[in-house]
């Protein structure tokens, strides 16, 4: 069994715990404060704390940690993990989720500090979670973790590669599941907008029982989310695409009189696209703890989630270069230009081609679908070498597997469409709807692709106390780990062949393994000063090895004040897709200075590189925890943080490369594969280790529990002030953009809760400060969201909850380079006022 020892708690220790938990979590404060108010001298079991492998008697560490409890998740009406995480002030950038309609394949991710989802490590019960999504993914799909199974979420806001290895550059999200449960509980909750759309709901069941030597907990959950169309929100700016249902040739369209004229209006694609994407999830999970005798405990957990999700975009924009007939050519293999076309300015380019564009409304909207299955099985043993020595050991194995089938309905085969136009150009060029269903069926098809990820992790460790100093025992943890990661993605054969109107893409397939050894030591130099030291060595089958370290200090200056600081190095190993991903074409908006390419969207071949090196990082945090003895229940934390990433895996600026080549830089021409006289037909941009990030800021947390007016009150405030965010030589501090997301200088969450006995009510607001539009420099207004919620215990077995999010129905701020709707849905609430309610039943 895990050894316990005596530990006397003072006021600062309680403050430290409140500081660790300080966030928007008002409900969590209530629960935690009760748990921490133990009498001095009580037996305290050693516990695991996110950010360290040392089993500790308390939660006092040098690293800042935010804890979000299950009660808070319910009070706020969160139905997905990504939703609750992105509401935290420490998040930034543009993490994909339920509001991402284009390019995310239904996945949901977390973006701590806005440094990229691939730089935040996601753990489940302290162990790695398999990357998941449509295949060969570099991040965890948070949809695979149902909210119903969560006991709490711990966010380590510090670099932790020395403890956990790759990916923990910006920090760690550790999701702790419900366990040691006894009884049967059913939860039902749902919600919808005040516009009677965007319905969502979840029903879950939890059953657990104790034996003489263990506990077994089982759960199941089903959730469904319905879509919200962009044009159904009156603040949405109509789209204006150059791809129109009538079709255009060489930029010209036929008017009602049959004359070729300039296009006068575009197509409004917001009537087809989602602000909230539909999804269904089915989950099963189980936890067990079983004593095996002789001080050995076996633990295990199993998780299975099936996700069926959809996104929808406007009908396929067919962009086809048609060969123009020369004298003697077979007109069935080329396009004949008549004199009216030539007089209107429709002439072939240097390759003898003319551009034809058509929005394929005749076929229908593009409907993306995903069917994913994610498994995770983890089992471990832990015990004591000798209960008198304080030495404990542990060993575990974790297996993760993710498989996905993805598709796109109503895609277009570009080659077959060109053949259809050559065979009978009149119906395509008249500007009238296509009525020949056989022709439409011949040029359209449904894309089908598949992919997956697999993970194996073996880990073993030893922890305990080495020896005693005057101020206490020196604690340690050492261990070794083997991890295997693989991934694959097989695009539709028509896409691989380059015959689709979508960009050509190659398959991805690859794997790697890593062997790691690590150690941590906690040294109480004095009664007030404690040092934490970590060192890790990782040996990869791909690039070689990496070493990382961490040094942390805590100093109890007074009974009311503790100072803390951490300096650490980190790294991120290149992912399977970055190493082994095949060419993935992208139509980017670029300017051709030679004038050869008339279309502003130019095909760029995006390639991977097997010789990529790991990203390297440095992080530094310094702060304090203050709990004034003259104000009971008050706790304050302030932390300065800075993260710096070098050799970041990224792509060079394509436009800058084109311009350099045009200016005579031969190396730029070679790097981007630009041919003679500005030939961009093989324009290529490969991943490389040239990226850079430097970001810093200050976090401020306040928690205050008190009694007044015969009520129990909880006040909390969480503020993040961004001092700097620079990436690849460009300053993003205080800016917002549809591609990069938001880097507001000020984000703030405030809540106040009042309750008595069986009931409580809470008011919560979330503030996102004003920013500059990255594309125009215009000011983007700040926004303040107001939420209200209430809970009521009918009796010990029944609880009701209800609330409203975005009570004042705030419109999102306008962004010039945003999504289809003229904003950034991943940053702002694009759904509007939403009502939610739930009931918990215990049997």
Automatic annotation (TrEMBL):
Keywords recorded for this protein, A-Z: Cell outer membrane, Membrane, Receptor, Signal, TonB box, Transmembrane, Transmembrane beta strand, Transport
Organism ancestry: Bacteria, Pseudomonadati, Pseudomonadota, Gammaproteobacteria, Alteromonadales
Localisation: Cell outer membrane
Domain TonB-dependent receptor-like beta-barrel: 359-806
This protein's name: TonB-dependent receptor
Organism field: Shewanella nanhaiensis
Top-level taxon of origin: Bacteria
Signal peptide range: 1-37
Principal location: membrane
Pfam families assigned to the protein according to its UniProt record, in alphabetical order: Plug, TonB_dep_Rec_b-barrel
Membrane topology type: Multi-pass membrane protein
Residue stretches making up the TonB-dependent receptor plug domain: 59-172
Family from the record: Belongs to the TonB-dependent receptor family.
């Amino acid at each position: 069994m895990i050894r316990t020892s005596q530990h006397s708690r003072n006021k600062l220790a309680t403050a430290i715990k409140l500081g660790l938990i300080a966030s928007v979590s008002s409900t969590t404060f209530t629960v935690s404060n009760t748990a921490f108010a133990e009498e001095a001298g009580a037996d305290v079991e050693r516990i695991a704390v996110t950010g360290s492998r040392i089993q500790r008697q308390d939660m006092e560490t040098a690293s800042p940690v935010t804890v979000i409890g299950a009660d808070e998740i319910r009070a706020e009406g969160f139905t997905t993990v990504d939703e609750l995480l992105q509401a935290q002030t420490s998040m930034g950038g543009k993490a994909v989720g339920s509001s991402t309609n284009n390019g995310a394949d239904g996945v949901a991710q977390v973006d701590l500090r806005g440094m990229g989802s691939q730089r935040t490590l996601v753990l489940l019960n302290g162990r790695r979670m398999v990357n998941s999504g449509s295949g060969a993914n570099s991040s965890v799909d948070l949809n695979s973790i149902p909210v119903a199974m969560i006991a709490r979420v711990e966010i380590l806001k510090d670099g932790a590669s020395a403890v956990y290895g790759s990916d923990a550059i910006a920090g760690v999200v550790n999701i702790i599941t419900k366990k040691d449960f006894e009884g049967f509980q059913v939860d039902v909750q749902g919600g919808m907008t005040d516009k009677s759309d965007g319905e969502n709901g979840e029903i879950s069941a939890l059953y657990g029982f104790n034996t003489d030597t263990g506990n077994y907990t089982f759960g199941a959950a089903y959730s469904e989310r319905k879509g919200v169309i962009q044009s159904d929100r009156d603040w949405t700016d109509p789209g204006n695409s150059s791809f129109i249902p009538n079709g255009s040739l060489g930029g010209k369209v036929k008017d009602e009189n049959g004359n070729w004229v300039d296009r006068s209006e575009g197509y409004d694609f917001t009537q087809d696209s989602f602000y909230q994407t539909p999804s269904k999830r089915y989950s099963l999970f189980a936890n067990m703890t079983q004593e095996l005798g002789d001080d050995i405990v076996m633990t295990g957990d199993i998780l299975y989630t099936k996700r069926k999700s959809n996104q929808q975009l406007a009908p396929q924009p067919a962009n086809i270069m048609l060969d123009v007939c020369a004298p003697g050519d077979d007109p069935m293999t080329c396009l004949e230009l008549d004199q009216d076309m030539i007089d209107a300015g429709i002439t072939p380019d240097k390759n003898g081609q003319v551009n034809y564009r058509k929005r394929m409304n005749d076929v229908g909207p593009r409907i993306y679908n995903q069917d994913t299955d994610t498994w995770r099985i983890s089992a471990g043993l832990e015990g004591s070498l000798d209960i008198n020595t304080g030495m404990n050991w542990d060993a575990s194995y974790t297996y993760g597997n993710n498989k996905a089938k993805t598709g796109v309905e109503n895609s277009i085969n570009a080659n077959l469409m060109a053949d259809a136009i050559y065979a009978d150009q009149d119906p395509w060029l008249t500007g009238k709807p296509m009525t020949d269903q056989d022709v439409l069926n011949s040029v359209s098809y449904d894309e089908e692709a598949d992919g997956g990820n697999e993970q194996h992790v073996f880990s073993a460790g030893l922890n305990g106390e080495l020896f005693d100093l005057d101020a206490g025992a020196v604690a340690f943890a050492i261990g070794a780990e083997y991890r295997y990661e693989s991934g694959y993605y097989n695009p539709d054969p028509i896409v691989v062949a380059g015959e689709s109107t979508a960009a050509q893409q190659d398959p991805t397939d690859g794997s790697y393994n890593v062997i790691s050894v690590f150690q941590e030591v906690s040294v109480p130099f004095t009664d007030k000063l404690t040092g934490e030291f970590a060192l890790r060595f990782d040996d990869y089958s791909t690039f070689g090895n990496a070493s990382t370290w961490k040094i942390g200090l805590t100093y109890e200056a007074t009974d009311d004040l503790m100072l803390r600081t951490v300096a650490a190095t980190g790294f991120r190993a290149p992912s399977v897709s970055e190493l082994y991903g095949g060419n993935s074409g992208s139509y980017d908006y670029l300017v051709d200075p030679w004038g050869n390419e008339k279309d502003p969207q130019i095909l760029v071949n995006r390639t991977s590189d097997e010789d990529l090196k790991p990203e390297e990082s440095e992080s530094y945090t310094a702060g304090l925890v203050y709990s004034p003895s003259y104000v009971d229940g008050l706790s304050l934390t302030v932390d300065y943080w800075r993260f710096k990433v070098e050799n970041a895996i990224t792509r060079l600026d394509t436009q800058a490369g084109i311009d350099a080549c045009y200016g005579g830089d031969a190396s730029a021409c070679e790097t981007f594969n630009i041919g003679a006289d500005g030939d961009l037909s093989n324009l290529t941009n490969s991943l490389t280790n040239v990226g850079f990030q430097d970001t810093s800021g200050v976090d401020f947390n306040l928690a205050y529990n008190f009694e007044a007016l015969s009520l129990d009150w909880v006040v909390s405030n969480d503020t993040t002030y961004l001092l700097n965010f620079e990436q690849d030589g460009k300053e993003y501090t205080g800016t917002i953009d549809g591609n990069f997301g938001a880097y507001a200088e000020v984000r703030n969450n405030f809540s106040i809760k009042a309750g008595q006995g069986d009931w409580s009510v809470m008011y919560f607001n979330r503030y996102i400060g004003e920013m500059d539009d990255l594309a125009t420099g215009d000011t983007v207004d700040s926004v303040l969201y107001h939420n209200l919620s209430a809970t009521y215990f009918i009796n010990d077995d029944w609880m009701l909850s209800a609330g409203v999010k975005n009570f004042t129905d705030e419109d999102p701020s306008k962004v010039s380079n945003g999504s289809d709707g003229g904003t950034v849905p991943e940053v702002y609430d694009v759904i509007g006022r939403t009502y939610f309610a739930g009931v918990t039943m215990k049997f």
